[in-house]
Structures are given as structure tokens and as C-alpha cells.
# Entry
Amino acid sequence: MPNFNFNLETSKTVPGKHLLATRAFKSGELIYRIENYKRVSEPNYQTIQVGPEQHIEELGALAYLNHSCNPGVIVNTTEFTVRACRDIAVGEELNFFYPSTEWKMDRPFICLCGAPQCIRLVAGAFYVSLDVLGRYFINAHVREMAFGWLEATTNELWKVLPEGSARGTNNLLEACEVR
# Structure
């Protein structure tokens, strides 16, 4: 394998493989530029979502970039880059927050990362509160999908509110207040 500043290794503690840094990285530093991929419309466990119905696969070693709720890298699907989001030491596993790219995942799983802010169920951004998503770097397509879902849901809520209860107000929280 060419020198990518990381090694693909079999984990000694959990099933599967992971990527380990072969050198230290500073926060914001470019780790890898994503190239030579194939675009597909359906997700699978080795794709990265780059648009509402667009995913990329054939990512080589990057397919083993695992999830963490305390990630060391971000995958930017606009720039097609992987960057350190905090300082990373030599030998540290490279991982990212899967809901930052995935709206609804092909294979949800229970997270065992052990981070204090662990979200427990990793199924995609659709299943994570906006409050939690706001703590992480989130790609543009995921933000757009979240706001689109929120707008559609809010519009449906306005349709079912009793006549007069919310009419004339611009504040949804005020309209939903228990009286």
C-alpha cells in the first residue's frame, strides 16, 4: 500500500480492521484527499454519503475509517478530504462521526466508543437530535436534509393544530405551549 500517513491493521480489541496514524497530525491538517471513487445511488456498509441520494464507494483503505462519538477526523464531502479535527498522535486510530455524512445508514449499530457524549445508536443523522448534531462538523447535504425534514414536519404540525390555537403566531414553541 502506498504511504498514506496511516496503516490498515486488524484490531486486537474489537472485530474488524481500523486505520492507525503513522505520524502525528495537527488539528485542521489534511490527512487524505479522496480520489478514484465510484458514485452509486444506494448505500452499503462501505460507502460514504455525499448527497441526498449519492454515495461513493471503492474507497480502498478509507472504507475502514471507523466511527467514534469523539472523532479525530472529519470527512468533508464538499472538498472530498479527510482532515484532523483535533491533534492526533502517532498510532492513534483515525475515526469520524458517521452521522456527519450519513442520513440513514445501511447497517445501524450500537456504538461502543466509550466517549462521554456517545450517542449509543449509530443509524444516521436522521435519528440524532439537532442539538447533538450541532456539536459536530456536519456536511452540507446532511444539514440540508435535516432542515428539509424539520420544515416538512413543522408544516405538517401546523396542519393538525386546532383552529385558532396557533393561527397568527410565528413562534412554533408559543403555538405548542400547554395552556
